Amino acid sequence: MKSRKQKSKFRKAGRLLRSYAFGLLILGAGCADISRVRYGQETVKMAVLPSRSLQGMADRYLPLLRYLSNETGYDVQYISSNSYSGFAATVQGSDVQLVLADPLSLLTLQKAARAEILAVGWGAGGSLYTQGLVIAPQGSRIEDLKDLSGRRVGLASQRSAEGFLSQAWSLKEQGIDVRKDIRLVPCGNMDEVKRKLRAGRLEAGFIGLEAWEDSDIQDLKIVAHTEPVPHWAIAALPGTAPEIAEKIKSALLAMGPPKEGQQKILAGLGLVRFGQAEEPAFDDLKAKAERLGIPY
């Protein structure tokens, strides 16, 4: 027979295993912030492209989803995937109505699924555009784009607008073929690019401007700002009820600097407001993607 002490150990181990299994289930489902579920409310699911770490994404985007829930009366839920490559499968397999993603991913969804862009982020100075960055460790001999030839350069994904297309276009203008002249190292997300740079596993990295934080200057440096690309946008997928799309769009377009709480949410996203999509900006992005051989 087992002693009381042994039984206690087995009970503790069982509780730990159940907690661990539950945690894996939640991560696998990709649904964050489940404590917000409000019974009786209609659920609206929004898939968010995983450009940052899981924690980084939650810190950045959950306040926006809470705002949308409060303004529309829907329970707007956050649906995540583990990587850029798994994002399309998450969108297809999770009964998602809305998508928050970079413009390159949205072009793909427009083409493949006839997604309707509801609103696009606008940055400082009322600009529709953001930029990519090339970064390197402090003290690195990499000082400009031409120094990247032959280097190990980390990136989240070649499907990222501000984390690949932007840099690839600026390098092309310098006569550098990003795929032939540079040793690209996929890292999964932009926070991982920075982590591997700090660990000495990369010589440089591609990230978006919004992924750069003030504290990064302690051990990393910006080598170059690269080609402007449109900010992230929110789109509705086919099958989304028109009233849902309209309420979400109205709530986004109503956000602005005069309202302190909303301003804080926008600042966390690197934005000053949301605005209407402008086709010329996306047409230019399409042309650049085609020139660089980036599928969308």
Plain-language structure description:
It is a single chain. This protein is α/β, with parallel strands linked by helices and 296 residues long. The protein has two domains: 28-126 and 231-292, D-Maltodextrin-Binding Protein, domain 2 (3-Layer(aba) Sandwich); 132-227, D-Maltodextrin-Binding Protein, domain 2 (3-Layer(aba) Sandwich), CATH 3.40.190. It is 41% helix and 20% strand. The chain has nine helices and 14 strands. It starts with a helix and ends with a helix.
Element layout with pairings:
Layout: H1 4-29, E1 31-32, E2 43-48, H2 54-72, E3 75-79, H3 87-93, E4 98-101, H4 103-113, E5 116-122, E6 129-130, E7 132-137, E8 152-155, H5 161-173, E9 183-186, H6 190-198, E10 204-208, E11 220-225, E12 229-230, E13 233-236, H7 242-253, H8 260-268, E14 273-275, H9 279-292
Parallel strand pairs: 2-3, 2-4, 8-9, 8-10
Antiparallel strand pairs: 1-3, 4-13, 5-13, 5-14, 6-12, 7-10, 7-11
Average pLDDT for all residues = 87
**Level-1 CATH class name of the largest domain:** Alpha Beta
Name the poorly predicted regions: 4-37
Look up the CATH topology of the largest domain. D-Maltodextrin-Binding Protein, domain 2
How many β-strand stretches? 14
Q: Helices and strands: which structural class? A: alpha/beta
Question: Largest sheet at a glance?
Answer: 7 strands, mixed
Overall number of structural domains: 2
Within CATH, the superfamily of the largest domain carries the name Periplasmic binding protein-like II
Tell me the distance between the termini.
64 Å
Which strand-content bin applies to the residues? 15-25%
Q: Provide the succession of SSEs.
A: HEEHEHEHEEEEHEHEEEEHHEH
Number of helices: 9
Shape estimate: globular
Strand order of the largest sheet: 1-3-2-4-13-5-14
Approximate helicity band: 40-55%
